[in-house]
Structure formats: structure tokens, C-alpha cells
């Protein structure tokens, strides 16, 4: 049996795979990357089994400023059409939504910090293996999206209705960061702390750095969903 192949797209140097990298290495899977901030080249669809699309500070609607967004959306659309397992996180989920024809736009409120989401039903909660219907997760986003046609809403929050969705079982979009580690949280804080101003759902840097007790449960949930995706 051939080795399972995971390819990921990284948009900025400080938003990598986090816990997902540990999951890949622990299972002995093959890992490749497209770094958008370097001379990027997307792989052939035959060269990977799972695609993971990471976050970034740009908006999917900023194609004039980031021309590569058009290429990436086409690549993601082809991956979905090729029946690949696809996981999008933060910007990655927004790119999936956009690639599937849905609008992406600024949310009324930014969400930054350790904040609760709520799974919409027991089936969604079980999909992630969550022990609670309202887990605390790491958030860092200002945009939202309409649900693409044919998708199922999985989770919502007080500030953002569309927090997570699935499409034909093998495609998952998450606005939040289940893959968060202490290092990945620190990396984002060190590069984006200017966003920590005002807002009902924006926590202080000190609070975010001190409340890392939620990381293990987040990592357990991302591992659960990854293990399910590779079996589909």
C-alpha cells in the first residue's frame, strides 16, 4: 500500500501546519508544501491525497492585491472536483467557500482569542469527537462567508454564524484553529498584534498567551477529523 500523501498551502511564514504537522509525522505520511510567499507552484492533482489550506491575513476578495488568489481558487476547485480530501482553516475555509461559488466578505465583528463555538447538532459534534457541544477554540479572523450550495453547516458562534461546514463529506472548512499550538499562537501574536484593538470578541494579548489550556482538546478534535478524512 502506498504512503498517504498530504499537501498543504501556506500563505505567510508565520501560519504553518501547527499540530497537523505532528499528526502527519506520527503517522508516517508524506508531506509536501506550496509556499505562496515564495516562488510557488501547485502540484499535479495526481500527486497528493489530501489538501490542507492554511490561514493568512489577506481576504479572498483582494485579488488585485494578491493575484495568486485566482490561481489558488482554481487549484482548490480542481482538488474538490478530483474527489480529494480537503481541509481549509481560517483563510483556507474562505478560499474553499469562494471556490465553491459563495461570497466572502468582512464580518460585522472580528473574533480573536479563545472563544466558544457551538456545534449545530449531535452529528456535527460527533464528527469532531467533541466532549462538549460548545468547545473553546482559537479564533483569529475578520471575514465570513455565505454557505456554498450543497454544504452542511457544522458550527456557529455568537459573532459569526458560519464557523464550519462540510461539502460531500470529504471537504471541511473551519474558520477557527483546531491545529493551534503554543508556538503557532505565539507566531500569530508576534506578527499580527496590531489587530488587538477594541471589539467585543477581541481578547488581550496577555489573556491569549496565558490561556493555552484549551490546546489539547482542540488538537484532539483536529486529529479526529483528519483521521476520518483519510478513510473516506
From TrEMBL:
GO molecular function terms noted in the UniProt entry: transferase activity
Signal peptide start-end: none
Pfam families for the chain: GATase
A cellular component term, taken from the record's GO annotations: cytosol
Keywords: Glutamine amidotransferase, Transferase
Start and end residues of each Glutamine amidotransferase domain: 24-184
PANTHER family in the record: GLUTAMINE AMIDOTRANSFERASE YLR126C-RELATED (PTHR42695)
Protein's name in the database: Type 1 glutamine amidotransferase
Native source species: Dysgonomonas mossii
Amino acid at each position: 500500500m502506498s504512503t498517504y500523501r498530504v499537501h498543504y498551502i501556506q500563505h505567510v511564514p508565520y501560519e504553518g501546519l501547527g499540530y497537523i504537522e505532528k499528526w502527519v509525522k506520527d503517522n508516517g505520511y508524506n508531506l509536501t508544501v506550496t509556499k505562496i510567499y515564495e516562488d510557488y507552484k501547485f502540484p499535479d492533482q495526481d500527486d497528493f491525497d489530501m489538501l490542507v489550506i492554511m490561514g493568512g491575513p489577506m481576504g479572498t476578495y483582494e485579488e488585485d492585491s494578491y493575484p495568486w488568489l485566482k490561481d489558488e481558487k482554481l487549484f482548490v476547485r480542481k482538488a474538490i472536483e478530483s474527489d480529494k480530501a480537503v481541509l481549509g482553516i481560517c483563510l483556507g475555509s474562505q478560499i474553499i467557500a469562494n471556490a465553491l461559488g459563495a461570497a466572502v466578505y468582512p464580518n460585522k465583528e472580528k473574533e480573536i482569542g479563545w472563544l466558544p463555538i457551538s456545534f449545530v447538532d449531535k452529528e456535527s459534534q460527533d464528527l469532531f469527537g467533541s466532549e462538549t457541544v460548545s468547545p473553546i477554540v482559537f479564533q483569529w479572523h475578520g471575514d465570513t462567508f455565505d454557505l456554498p450550495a450543497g454544504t452542511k453547516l457544522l458550527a456557529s458562534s455568537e459573532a459569526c454564524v458560519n464557523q464550519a461546514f462540510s461539502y460531500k463529506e470529504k471537504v471541511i472548512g473551519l474558520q477557527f484553529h483546531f491545529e493551534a499550538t503554543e508556538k503557532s499562537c505565539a507566531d500569530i501574536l508576534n506578527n499580527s498584534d496590531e489587530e488587538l484593538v477594541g471589539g467585543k470578541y477581541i481578547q488581550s494579548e496577555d489573556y491569549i498567551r496565558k490561556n493555552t489550556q484549551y490546546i489539547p482538546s482542540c488538537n484532539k478534535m483536529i486529529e479526529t477529523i483528519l483521521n476520518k478524512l483519510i478513510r473516506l
